[in-house]
Design a protein that fits this description.
By secondary structure, the chain is of the alpha+beta class. It has one domain. Helix content is about 45%, strand content about 25%. It is built from 7 helices and 4 strands; from the N terminus they run H-H-H-E-H-H-H-H-E-E-E. Strand 2 and strand 3 form a beta hairpin. The protein is elongated. The protein starts with a helix and ends with a strand. The N terminus is likely disordered.
């Protein structure tokens, strides 16, 4: 096996091979894991279906997350100051773009069903994606 690993490392596809060695986690596996922890449900009893037909932004709007975390209008004192409003609008756009990059999963098992929005986590300092970590968001009003 040692020879196969060193040969793979010398090939052009070595980054893909290395990623497999370090343990990439698919978004679906992350959704299953999150659901399993949420409902104390064994992973083998969890059914996870990717819902590519659902738009994350629409789901978020339905859950009112965007309006709760980043209201459509800034507070009056911010709205009246053009420099502050510009900062507020940039942050709101950043939050909405981040939420919109999530993938929807319908997950069920152990008598429950949940819609989760999942994405690989990112390093806040440099924006690098951690492919071995998945963060999922569920409906906060449930």
């Amino acid at each position: 096996m040692g020879r196969a690993v060193s040969q793979a490392l010398s090939n052009r596809w070595s980054p893909v091979f290395l990623a497999a060695l370090v343990g990439c986690k698919t978004l679906g596996a992350g959704a299953t894991e999150s659901y399993s922890l949420l409902y104390s449900c064994p992973p083998e009893q969890v059914q996870t279906i990717e819902r590519s037909d659902l738009d994350a932004a629409a789901v978020i709007a339905q859950w009112h997350i965007a309006t709760e975390t980043t209201p459509k209008e800034p507070p009056k004192e911010v709205a009246e100051d053009p420099a502050r409003r510009k900062v507020w609008e940039a942050r709101r756009a950043e939050v909405l773009a981040e939420l919109d990059q999530k993938t929807a999963f319908e997950v069920r098992g152990c008598g429950h069903q949940e819609l989760l929005l999942c994405a690989h986590t990112k390093n806040p300092k440099n924006g690098a994606t951690y492919t071995n970590e998945v963060a999922c968001l569920g409906n906060p009003s449930k």
